[in-house]
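Friendly challenge for the regulars: who can give me the C-alpha cells for this chain first? No prize, just bragging rights.
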Amino acid sequence: MNNQQLAQRDLKCLWHPCTQMKDHESLPLIPIKNGRGAWLYDFDGHRYLDAISSWWVNLFGHANDHINQRINAQMQQLEHCIFAGYTHQPAVDLAESLVAITPPGLERVFLADNGSSAVEVALKMSFHYWLNCGHGRKHRFVNLSNAYHGETLGALAVGDVPLYKNTYAPLLMEPITAPSPDCFGLSTEDACQANVQDKLNAMQQILEAHHDTVCAVIVEPLVQCAGGMRMYPPSYLTGLRDLCDEYQVHLIADEIAVGFGRTGTLFACEQAAISPDFMCLSKGLTGGYLPLSAVLTGENIYQAFYDDYTKLTAFLHSHSYTGNPLACTAALATLELFEKNDTLAANRKLAEHLRNTLAPYKTHPNVAEIRQTGLIAAVELQQAPGRPFDWRERRGRRVYEYGLKHELLIRPLGDVVYFMPPYVITPDEIEHMVHTAFAGINEAVR
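First reply, four minutes later:
Bragging rights claimed.
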C-alpha cells in the first residue's frame, strides 16, 4: 500500500470534517501509517512534525508508551459497560482526580463524549438548574464575539465564527453577543488593560439589562482558538466572575482547547484565580487517544437536580459511551504523565524557546502580529494597506502546502498561522517548525 492507493480508496467512500472535498482533486490526502513522539509518518516514508497536536489533542506524543500500557491493561479487564445504574473504577478514579486538580468548588463530574457534547451539557445543565430553582424565565446565553464552542447545534449557537455558523443560522437559538476583549493590534499592556475594562463595561450593560432572562455567560478563557487564536489577559476573567456573581448568572469556562497545560498553568482559569460554575474539558484530556469530555460543576448545582424521579428534576442527558473505561484510563494515564514529568515546568521552558525563536520575525514584512500564551502561538499575516481579508486568496493553504513538502504539519486558520505542538517537542523541533512556517509564508505572501 502507498499514499496514492490509500488516498484513492478514501475518496470513494469517506467524507472528511471541515473540508471542501473538491480540494483533494488538487491537494492529495496524506494517508498516515504510524506516529511516534511529535512525528507522523505516511505510507511513502515521509514524515511530518505534528505542530498542531492533531487538532490540539495529542499532548504527550503519538504512541506514548505509558498511555499504551495503561490502555492495554484495561482492555484485558473491561472495555465498556452501561454507565446508567453501573460504575467502574477508571471513571471513579478519573472523577476524583479531576476534582482534585481543578479550581475550588468544582466537586461534581459529568462525563460525555467530546467537546461539543460537553458544551451542550453545560448549557442544558445551566438552564435546567434555573428551571428547577423556579427561575423559568432564564433561557438565554451570553457569548463573546469571535467565539467558538463546537459544531453541534447548541454549541454552534453560542459560537460567533461566521464560517461555521451562518449556514445553520435558521436552526439555532440566538445568544446575546458581548464584544470580545482580545488585544489584537494593541501594542502596550496599558492599552490592552483599557480594552479589557471597556469590554467589561459592555458586559455589565448586557447583564444589567438581561440578567433576569440569562442563564450563563460562556467564554474560552484567555485564547479564542478557532476564532484565529485571539488572546486576552486574565483580568477579564476576574472581572467577568464578579459580574456573573453580581447579576446571578452562571459562568461557563470552555477549557476544551486551553486546558491541561496549554496556557502555562494546568487550567487557564487559574491565572485569574477564579472558579467557574461549569468547566468543560476534552481534547487533551485523554492525551489524544480516545473521545472523552467532562463537565465539572459545584455541589449546589448538583443538589438542585437531586429529588424523586417523578418530579422530573433529574438531568436526563446521556451518551451510549458515557464513562467509557478505556477513555477514562487514557485520561488517568495522561494525568499521571503531568506529575511524573513535571510537565508544566517543562512547558514553560518550551514556551520560552518558542517565544525566542519567533522574536526575530516580529518585524517580518508579511506579519501583522505575533502573539503567544503558553504553548499556543499565532502569526497573523499582514494585509495590504486598505485591502480587506479575502479568504479566496487562501494564503494559509499555501503555507500548509509548503509545510507538507518540508516535514511540517500545520493547519492555518485563514490568514493566521498558528503553533500548538505536543509537549514532547524538542527545542530543535520548535526551530524547524517556526523556520519552515516562515519559509512557507515567504512563498505564499508576495
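The first helix runs from residue 3 to 11. The CA atoms of residues 49 and 141 lie 39 Å apart. Your move, everyone else.
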